[in-house]
Design goal:
By secondary structure, the chain is an alpha+beta fold. Helix content is 30%, strand content 13%. A hairpin with a 3-residue loop joins strand 1 and strand 2. The chain is globular and about 55 Å long.
Length: 379
């Protein structure tokens, strides 16, 4: 809930959200588009005692903060060095005090710390490692493994798409990473291209920002809806219902659909119409946008994008096995790229937040329409 808001009043949330779509501004290019950030070791106006956040909770003095390398809807990301180990990390500071009212702030911070502790237990080669987390005055921060690469939003436009075989391999790796996280009771809730970092030179892949999307009661925020990217959200997540791992697999299906075609399965200039499409209308066969794709791959996406969770893949491992089978049996040659892709400039394809100052996913910039540069460089 935004600062000063009232619990349970979702109408105000939607009015403000829709009213601010036109104010969404382009985010500047960043070295790590969605990794965390921190600028100060003390919140503005906070006393030294407040900045500690309690004796049992780490503070930012354990890190030497460097340049800002990313900026998101609710956070800033900084390159940093962990003083105790000399390890390079990325530190993300979340402006909770700006987004939540005073009466909810303590509860939100507690929930964030619980999510961060759960994410810290994840040790998987394709999941970005959480190094530490703590409080900074009235806000919170999280330190993450520092990686090079580009987030996958760089490969979602016609003319910039990755080879189909590479997309399917990425899909299988992400599905297995999700299977691992789900087996440990951790749901991501915000799977989208901007939350996946790829280094094509070294073959490195990292799924980022586990737990960041969940900042409210159970699977719901105090406004009644998990803040996320509407076009990538499952029907049950958009409805504010309890979600499980199958919701992440739906979002993974949307991600793969966009990487393969340069378009999204559901698009609309109207939020109400977009929600209706996601809730009730079957996703178009991916071969409508790219006819050369194999039928087996189209079937995998169709299962992942089922409206009812019980009809989707029950686990990421099963989805990964089907994607592996596509690689072996169905991808003998590279399908032709789509001739024309729909514009992805719709505001609803971006991450929507309660603040107009910061842009969401896939920000438009002069570089957005240029061919990708050396993939080994930092985003």
């Amino acid at each position: 809930m935004a600062s000063g808001g009232k619990p349970g009043k979702t109408g105000g949330f939607w009015q403000r959200l829709i009213g601010r779509l036109g104010d969404t501004r382009d985010a500047p290019p960043s070295e790590l588009s969605t990794l965390p950030a921190v600028q100060q070791t003390q919140a503005p106006g906070a006393s030294p005692a407040q900045a500690k956040g309690g004796s049992s909770i780490p503070d930012l003095r354990g890190f030497e903060l460097g340049a800002e390398i990313g900026r998101g809807a609710m956070a800033i990301v900084y390159k940093a060095t962990q003083r105790a180990t000399g390890r390079q990390v990325a530190v993300k500071r979340l402006a909770l005090s700006r987004e939540f009212s005073a009466e909810d702030l303590a509860d939100v911070r507690e929930r964030f710390m619980r999510e961060a502790r759960a994410a810290r237990t994840l040790e998987h080669p394709d999941i970005l490692q959480v190094v530490d987390a703590g409080e900074d005055g009235r806000d919170a921060w999280i330190a993450l493994e520092y990686v090079l690469g580009r987030d996958l939003s760089a490969f979602t436009k016609a003319g910039q798409l990755l080879p189909v075989r590479e997309v399917v391999q990425i899909g299988a790796r992400l599905a297995r990473a999700l299977a691992y996280a789900h087996s440990r009771g951790v749901i991501h809730r915000d799977i989208k291209p901007a939350n996946v970092m790829l280094d094509r030179v070294n073959g490195s892949l990292r799924l980022m920002d586990f737990g960041i999307a969940r900042v409210g009661d159970g699977s719901r925020t105090r406004t009644g809806l998990v803040l996320g990217t509407p076009s990538f959200m499952s029907p049950e997540q958009l409805a504010g219902l309890t979600v499980d791992g199958r919701s992440d697999l739906y979002s993974l299906g949307v991600l793969l659909y966009q990487l393969l075609t340069g378009t999204l399965p559901h698009q609309s200039e109207s939020m109400a119409r977009l929600m209706q499409q996601i809730a009730t209308e079957p996703a178009p066969d991916v071969r409508i946008h790219r006819p050369g794709l194999p039928e087996a791959l189209a079937l995998v996406l169709a299962v992942a994008l089922e409206k009812r969770p019980e009809l989707r893949y029950p686990s990421g491992e099963q989805m990964a096995r089907d994607l592996d089978a596509v690689l072996v049996m169905a991808l003998q040659a590279e399908p032709a790229e789509p001739e024309v892709a729909r514009s992805q400039d719709s505001a609803f394809a971006q991450t929507l937040r309660l603040t107009p100052e910061e842009a969401g996913q896939n920000p438009r910039s002069p570089a957005a329409h240029a061919a990708p540069t050396d993939p080994s460089q930092a985003s």
